[in-house]
Write a structure and sequence with these properties.
Shape: globular
Strand content: 25-35%
Helix content: 25-40%
Bound molecules: uridine-diphosphate-N-acetylglucosamine, phosphoenolpyruvate
CATH architecture of the largest domain: Alpha-beta prism
Distance between the termini: 7 Å
Largest sheet: 4 strands, mixed
Number of strands: 24
């Protein structure tokens, strides 16, 4: 499972290069099968979720060549005949559910074990199912599998009851190959929704309006292979910005789209951190004592839930009392108990975490309970006295590429251990 040892007290300086966006990559890889042709996806993050999706596609009959060094995956789905993902592998990540939309679009049929992913509260998929059914599919859940099948997919108007990134993307995937026009209302506007739409259009799909809350998809009979580069990971970038702030550092976070990071930039500035924008990079300079801030997670362009945990770690050392409100996932505060082991003063009340800043954190043995909880504990470890031992490193490897190499290059003292 692995551990990360983090020796606190070192100031991060220098430049870190941000990889491709996990949450876009994990949708684009399954989406590639829609073409029934050869797609080349580059700027992929070297993370476990990408390895697993490549493996699933290979196992079911696509030919996948993953060149990790060049961050590029060639997916030839010409000979693929079915879309199936067994429990043992589908449970390892959330994004296995995109094989449903992609499989429905390509074969009018898909069978995928119920997905896994971070345990951060209940994660229903009713809106995905509602969308598939509106397109004419029959969806059954039995023995832990979701099976979707349609004689024909017909475009439809679908109003999402909740703003869901996964449902928006999954419906887009299936609707690309439906007959006629699909309109998704109350769609998610996150940058990865736009990235997936751009990839689909590069394959010959006709998707318009991604990035707004109404997406229109005109179904097409045929799609073709394409070469596509994934956008930078706003969550990885935000995490390194917070790490720079946590260590009184001076870090250039390179290869980012600054617009995607505006909610983080605004909060860091409110806390007394300088953030300078230069084209595709952000420089974070932390010279002053951290001031408290209140955080409320919201759908894009609000503060992203995936950065709530890293940000609450930072707030443990800010002057004053900060309130963190988690509106997306009711169970996304498991990291708070671990932070308390390190001397943080915080309490969770339902959807709120009340964090009273302390002068100092002390190292401890702690456990990552999910991906971003892991990032939060690294941040706490960087700020603490002594060496923090973070177990369950496999969660962090799901979504942060080369975490120890990147941190070492910035001057942190970290070590991977068994
Ligand atoms: C692989 C991936 O991209 N994961 C991201 C994706 O997850 P994911 O796509 O699973 O998250 P959603 O946007 O779907 O979930 C948002 C909210 O809607 C609810 N919901 C969702 C679907 C549904 O059918 N019914 C329903 O009620 C969820 O419980 C949650 O409260 O977006 C989340 C919110 O930005 C991020 O935290 C995850 O990192
Ligand atoms: C919750 C996350 O991922 P997933 O949806 O893949 O579990 C995340 O990236 O923070």
């Amino acid at each position: 499972m692995g551990k990360l040892l983090v020796e606190g007290g070192y100031r991060l300086t220098g430049k870190v290069n941000i990889g491709g966006f996990k949450n876009a990559a994990v949708a684009i890889i399954p989406a590639a099968i829609l073409a029934g042709d050869v797609c080349i996806v580059d700027n992929l993050p070297t993370i476990e979720d990408v390895n697993i999706l490549g493996q699933i596609l290979n196992d079911i009959g696509a030919s996948v060549a993953y060149d990790k060094e060049n961050k590029e995956m060639k997916i030839d789905s010409t000979k693929l005949e079915e879309c199936y993902a067994p429990y043992e592998i589908a449970k390892k990540l959330r994004a296995s559910y995109y094989l449903l939309g992609a499989g429905l679009g390509r074969f009018k049929k898909a069978k995928v074990a119920l997905p896994g992913g971070c345990e951060i509260g209940s994660r229903p998929i009713d809106q995905h199912i509602k969308g598939f059914e509106a397109l004419g599919a029959t969806v059954n859940i039995s023995h832990g599998f979701i099976e979707a099948e349609a004689e024909e997919l017909i475009g439809a108007e679908i109003y999402l009851d909740v703003v869901s990134v996964g449902a928006t993307i999954n419906i887009m995937l299936a609707a690309c190959r439906a007959k006629g026009k699909t309109i998704i209302e109350n769609a998610a506007k996150e940058p990865h929704v736009v990235d997936v739409a751009n990839f689909l259009n590069s394959m010959g799909a006709d998707v318009r309006g991604a990035g707004t809350d109404i997406i229109k998809i005109n179904g097409v009979d045929k799609m073709k292979g394409s070469t596509y580069s994934v956008i930078p990971d706003q969550i990885e970038a935000g995490t390194y910005m917070i790490m720079a702030a946590a260590t009184g550092g001076d870090v250039i976070v390179d290869n980012v789209i600054p617009k995607h990071l505006e909610p983080v930039t605004a909060k860091l500035k409110e806390m007394g951190i300088q953030v300078h924008e230069y084209g595709e990079s952000l420089r974070v300079v932390a010279e002053n004592k951290l001031k408290k801030a209140n955080i409320k997670t919201l759908v894009y362009p609000g503060f992203p839930t995936d950065l709530q945990q890293p940000m609450s770690a930072l707030l443990t050392k800010a002057t004053g009392t900060s309130i963190v409100t988690e509106t997306i996932y009711e169970g996304r505060f498991k990291h708070i108990d671990e932070l308390k082991r390190m001397g943080a003063k915080a309490k969770v009340e339902g959807r709120l975490a009340v964090i009273q800043g302390v002068e100092k954190l002390s190292s401890a043995k702690v456990m990552a309970t999910d991906l971003r909880a892991g990032a939060a504990l690294i941040i706490a470890g960087l700020m603490a006295d002594g060496t923090t031992e973070i177990s369950n490193l496999h969660y962090i490897d799901r979504g942060y590429e080369c975490i120890e190499e990147k941190l070492l290059s910035l001057g942190a003292k970290v070590k991977r251990a068994i």
